[in-house]
Amino acid sequence: MKLKRAIKIGKDCGLETIGEAICNIELHASSMFDFDNIQEEIEELHNDFKNSGLNEDNLLENN
Fold this sequence. Notes:
The chain has one domain (about 5-60). Helix content is about 65%, strand content about 0%. It is built from three helices and no strands. The mean pLDDT is about 100.
């Protein structure tokens, strides 16, 4: 999953920070992805976040 999608989902869920959005995806991954793809999707999200230059405390409304 790309960070941009996680941010959109976080906003739709009423979350405030990027860290909350990422945690939300991790918590609900088993409901969102096929079991065989969960690890790949989470790794993609973490890599996209790492390369974004953002931090977990950045507000979703600013992204």
